[in-house]
Design brief:
Strand content: 5-15%
Radius of gyration: 30 Å
Structural class: mainly alpha
Number of strands: 9
Order of helices and strands: HHHHHHHHHHHEEEHEEEEHHHEHEHHH
Number of helices: 19
Amino acid sequence: MENPKNDKYNDTVYLEIPELCKRYDGSRRRRRQIHRRPLHLQRRVYDPAIVSLGPYHHGRPELRDADEVKHRFLDRLTSGDSAKKNSLYDRVLERIDEIRYSYADFECVERYDDRALALMILLDASFVVSLVNGIAGDDDFFADWQFCFGGGNLWFIIRDIILLENQIPLQVIKMIIKSQHGDELGEELLQKFMTWLMSGEFSTGGRKCIPPTTTNGEEEPLHLLEACRELLLIEQNKTLSTTISGIKLTQHDVHNFNQTFRSVTYLKEKGIHFMPSSSHSVRGIKFESGAISGRLHIPARIVSSNAFVCMSNMIAYEMSPGSETGFEVLSYTTFMKSLIEGPADVKELQEKGILINKFQNNEQLLEEIKALDTFGLDNLDIFKEVRRQIEEHCRSKTKTWMADLKHTQFRSPWTIAALLGAMFLLCLAFMQTYFTIHPRK
């Protein structure tokens, strides 16, 4: 006997709905790409002020003056030779599919055909390479810069080229600079330029942030910001792994023990002294515990408005989809923010040579540090051992008692002098009593 219910469904005619037939293309998400900032990051530290690089901010009216200047710098790089220009353009055009798919916002990139996108990237890369040449000592570059922008705008340009949404593929920059200087010198100039961006020093100091080859399985940085971030993670003579170990909410993680330490001032009262680390890496924070005191080694860092813009954009990069990082810069920032609560903390780190302050005063620096947003996130694995050692030191009654005695009783040299005087008088009184009881015969 047939089931009438089944007949009902067998006679049903299904209509194909196009919107439900769409399939998610996950292939684009599996590759490393240049992302826009996460939508909840809306502060102006992510928007360019003078120059646009790449498609995301291209064509904005307030940035068009710099677009005209890019042609001037391409002329200088090629000595005005049309054949050289066409050669560079063709080499960029050969890679246009790879360049196009390196951007996560596909709808934005699709507004440009292959030739328009290739020209845009060529001009933008020429602009960056000209800046590298200028920092390396090309006086003609700075003469052009003064003429086109005025010398005072250099720092705004430096700020713009390290923004997350203002990136172009690093391979194009390397291709142009190597075509001009050769492979070895071009690589060296780019290394020095990124060291200058991060530290103000135009030298590599023995450190390299761009792997010359990828035979060890590590991918080359996709763009300039990623390469600069890697520079902050590299120990001298040793590259630290950036394998993701998991991001955790600090307020909910079970391994986040109850910390009793807070600011620099608090730790100083507990007998912890601050010293600049020999490491340049943001992971180079180390703690040494002594018999009655401790030493916290922190990498020295130049702090300026551009430095904070760079840090904010590195954090945005670490939070971007597909960025397989260990959240090192975010965790370093969280750690430093926990140390700095007031002007006294800034002053102490500045006096110890850990913070090289380029602001007008400590209060301005403190405001910038507080404005750095880490969104309550942290990779606790990175500084877990340092935090544990500090915690043990702060819970040691012997060490903290000695530190408290020194901090409260011996803060002033007059206090020490008074104590020595009192001890001297006590000795005299003891000797007088002794000889009174036991007079000399």
